[in-house]
Amino acid sequence: MKNQNHEIDRNFTRLYIDETEISVESGLPAARVTPPGPVAARSAVTGPGRVFRHSEMGTMGFDDSAWRLDEGRNYYVLTRDYDTQHAGAKAPADIRRVCLDLGFKPVDLPVVPVARFDRRNLKRYLLGPLKLLRLIARARATDIVLVQHPIVGRLEKRLIPRLCRRCRTIALVHDLDIIRNQENLEYDDLTFLSHFDVIISQNDKMLEYVEEKIPRVQNVSIDLFDYLTTRDAQVAWSAAPGRLYIIGNLNPDKAGYLYAIQGVKLPIWAYGPNCETQKLPAGVAWKGVLDMHNPAFGAVDGFGVVWDGRSADGLEGVWGRYLLYNTPHKLSMYMMLGMPVIVPSESAVARFVVDSGIGFAVGSLQEADDLVSSLSPDAWDRLRQNVLAARRGIMGGAYTRKAMRGALVALGAVQEDRAS
User: What 3-state DSSP class applies to 98?
Assistant: First the structure.
């Protein structure tokens, strides 16, 4: 393929731009080196066909039986290679890490500017499509590729449907722009997702939405994103809750509710970028920005708030309505911190939070204030036990493995090993 002064050779092994060669090895790119963590320390999987045991899945409804990937296939995980400090990079990086532990091979696509074409980034623009072309060329009908959606890049979006026709594919949905951003939709991600064999949705509400819109595709729910970390497993709890925590992007367009809070007596500590401190109401204090990959807290003395939109009395605005279908990653961060949560009663995560006993679903933050203030010591202790059970799961990758097992079972790519 030749176009002006850049060229890709027929075997997809070299890319030339302005007579500069970008080498691509004959095999797929090797995994990035990552420090050992809780998943690597506990997993029994090193490749397809090896037995895997759920070591911490005895709680929160996890299946503790042994299973292994079906032999005779190749397994790949396709991930956008964000900078590790990018706030949106944590969940995809953790999914990737768990999948590598299961025996998947990585295909990492470079991040490219999406606002406008910049010739200085031409190599990065072409490297992602080149990797996809090479994967399409070598993929067999029985191979399985996990794609983390959404994929940013026009060429990649056009090539992935070709990959879906070539082999078996799974899409794990981090965001659905057709719900979140209807007024400024660059492309229909439902049409894009219709090419896949299995879709891993974030929760039951999103699963129902996807099933209605794409009935032919098999669906699995992940319920909660994992949050891999090297933090100490011990969590200190205070004798009683005394405040509310709000962590995330504090831009008024997204977190307008924070600036509209009224009648809440408990102190509120807010962490995150884009805070307009001069607009904060009385009782709300901005405490800076946390390291999203390894946030540090003292003893747990309150509840983490999962809320979005312009109102503290319900789900209003684009970001508020998105919670009707979305599982925010901050829910996982609160679990990793050992912190019970307050969520909107209308939100997609409300049933999971209540059924799991890890927090409360309320109609307004003022209602949350009354609920937390009147909590008994026994109820506080029950919350602690349930949160710590969920915490063990997300720190070890249990939710990703559960969802991946469901997706792979749907594709006939799991071998049960009851005798192990």
Answer: helix
* Residue 79, Cβ density class (10 Å: 0-12 exposed, 13-18 middle, ≥19 buried): buried
**Whats the size of the chain, residue-wise?**
420
Contact in structure between 266 and 372 (CB atoms under 8 Å): yes
Q: Would you call 21 exposed, middle or buried from its count of C-beta atoms within 10 A (0-12, 13-18, 19+)?
A: exposed
Q: Is the separation of the CB atoms in 306 and 255 below 8 Å?
A: no
**Is residue 184 classed exposed, middle or buried when 0-12, 13-18 and 19+ CB atoms within 10 A define those classes?**
exposed
Q: CA-to-CA distance for 67 and 45, rounded, in angstroms? A: 10
Least confident of 159-168, 228-237, 280-289: 228-237
**CA of 365: how far to CAs of 70, 134, 250, 271, 317, in Å?**
48, 51, 16, 17, 17
Yes or no: say if 24 and 130 are a contact pair by the CB < 8 Å rule. Answer: yes
319 pLDDT band, cuts 50/70/90, is very high
- CB 338 within 8 Å of CB 237: yes
Find where tokens 């912190």 sit: 339
Q: Token pair of 147, please? A: 């794609």
The answer to whether 37 touches 228, Cβ cutoff 8 Å, is yes
pLDDT digits (tens, 9 = 90+) for 355-385: 999 999 999 998 998 899 889 999 999 999 9
* Tokens at 368, concatenated: 């949350």
Spatial neighbors of 256 by CB under 8 A, at least 6 apart, are: 309, 310, 311, 317
Q: Are 299 and 236 in contact (CB under 8 A)?
A: yes
Q: pTM score > 0.85 for this model?
A: no
Q: Which residues pair with 148 in a beta bridge?
A: 172
What is the CA angle 407-409-413, rounded to 5? 105
Residue 207: which residues within 8 A CB-CB, separation 6 or more?
201, 219, 220, 221
Written as one letter, the residue type at 412 is G
Q: Is 70 exceeded by the pLDDT of residue 291?
A: yes
Those residues with Cβ within 8 angstroms of residue 317's Cβ, 6 or more apart along the chain or in another chain: 256, 309, 310, 311
Provide the token pair at 304. 């983490």
| Rounded Cα distance, 29 and 107, in Å | 7
Query: pLDDT band at 114, cuts 50/70/90?
Result: low
Which helix (H) or strand (E) covers residue 334, if one does? Answer: helix 329-336
* 204 class by beta-carbon count within 10 Å (0-12 exposed, 13-18 middle, 19+ buried): middle
